[in-house]
Amino acid sequence: MRNYVIKRLLLSVVILLFVALIIYTIMRSIPTSYVESIARQRASLPGSKSYSEWLEQLNKVYNLDVGILEGYVRTLINMVRGDFGDSWHYNVPVTQKFTEVIWFSFVLGAVAFILEIIIAIPLGILSARKQYSKTDYAVTVFALIGISLPTFFFATILKLVFAIKLGWFDLYGTVGRYYFQLSPFGKFLDIAKHYVLPVATLVIISIGSLMRFTRTNMLEVLNSDYIRTARAKGLSEARVINYHAFRNTLIPIVTIIGGTLPSLFSGALITETLFGITGIGKTAYDAMVSADIPFSMFYLVFLAVLTLLGTLISDILYAVVDPRVRVS
Q1: Of the options 1.10.1040.10, 3.10.250.10, 3.60.110.10, 1.10.3720.10, the CATH number for the domain spanning 99-321
Q2: 177: exposed, middle or buried (C-beta count within 10 Å: 0-12, 13-18, 19+)?
Q3: Using CA atoms, how far apart are residues 66 and 112, in angstroms rounded to an integer?
Q4: Mean predicted confidence (pLDDT) in 92-101
C-alpha cells in the first residue's frame, strides 16, 4: 500500500504540472487585462509616468513580458517557494484573502455534505428494500424534485417563504445586526441560524443524485446470488441488508464521496451570492471576472490538488470497504 501511495503521489505531481500549465495558459489568454486598467489609473495621476511605461513595469513585475512557457516556469518556481503573489483585485496577498474566505465555504459545504450522506444513503437503501412500494415512489419523486430544481429558483423560494413571509431567518449575511453584543453561545446560534437556508438549499439540490445512485446499486446487490444464498441460510433480513448488502453497496458510493472533496473547498457560487455569503466561490468568481491571474491561478491549482487527493482517497477506501480489493 505504501509503494502504491508513493507511486500515485508522484504521478499526481506530474499531472498537476500539466494541469497548472493549462490553467496558466487560459489565464494568460483572458481578453481583459487588470494590469492595463491599473496602468491607465496610475498614468492619469498628476506627474505620473506614461501609460506605456507603467504597462511595461507592471508586466515585468508579474512575468507578463515573456512568453507563456517562461512565465509559467517563473510562476511555478515562486509557487513552490510559497510565494503566490498579491491579488490584483483585492490588493492583499493571495493566501491572506484565501484564508479569510475559505472557512465560510468550508463550513457551508461540510455541513451540507454530512447531512446529504445522513439523509440520502438511508433513504436510498429504504427505497431499494421496498421496491415499487409507496415508499419507493415517494423517495423517487423527492429525489427527482431535488435533481430538477435550479439552485437560484429554490433558494429564492426559501428566502421568500422563511425570510420574508415568516420572518424566521435573515435574507443575507452570516451574522446578525447584534452579533457582537451576544454571548459566545449566542454568537454560535446566530451564525447557525444564518446558515440554515443556504445549507437547506445545497442539501435539497444535491441529495437526489446520491439517493438515486444508492438505490440503483442497492437493487443490483440485492439481486445477487450471494444475497439469495444468505437468505436461504436463514439469516435475518436486517443482517442481510446491513452486513452483506450494504457493505458491497458502499464500494461505488466511495467514488462519489471521495470525489466530493473539492466541493467542500470550491464554494457554491450561486448559493453564496444569493445569501450574501462571502465564500471562496464568489470571491474566486469576482477575481476571474477581473482577470486576477494570481488569485485565479492559486484557486484553480488548489482545486486540482484536491481533485487528485480525492481520487487517491477513493482508491484507498476501496480496500477498506471491500476486503477483496488489495493493492499490490
Answers
A1: 1.10.3720.10
A2: exposed
A3: 44
A4: 90
pLDDT at 326: 61
CA–CA distance, 13 with 9 (Å, rounded to integer):
6
Quickly list H helices, 130-239.
134-148, 151-158, 184-222, 225-232, 237-239
Domain with CATH 1.10.3720.10 in the chain: 99-321
Dist CA 91 CA 30 (whole Å): 20
What pTM does this model have? 0.79
Residue 181: burial class (beta carbons within 10 Å; 0-12, 13-18, 19+):
exposed
Band of pLDDT at residue 138, cut at 50, 70 and 90? very high
- What is the secondary structure of 52-91 as a DSSP string? HHHHHHHHHHTT-SS-HHHHHHHHHHHHHTT---B-TTTS
What pLDDT, in 10s, does the model give residues 45-80? 777 788 788 888 877 777 777 788 888 888 888 888
How far apart (Å, rounded) are the C-alpha atoms in residues 24 and 69? Answer: 9
Rounded CA separation 146/105 (Å): 21
Backbone angles phi and psi of 279, in degrees to 5: -95, -175
C-alpha–C-alpha distance, residues 121 and 17, integer Å: 36
Whether residue 327 has pLDDT greater than 70? no
Q: What separation in angstroms does the CA of 73 have from each of 17, 66, 68, 80, 140? A: 10, 11, 9, 11, 51
Reported as a single tens digit per residue, the pLDDT across 247-303 is: 777 777 777 777 677 777 777 788 888 888 888 888 888 888 877 878 888 888 888
Continuous segment of H or E residues that includes residue 111 = helix 94-129
Three-state secondary structure call for residue 209: helix
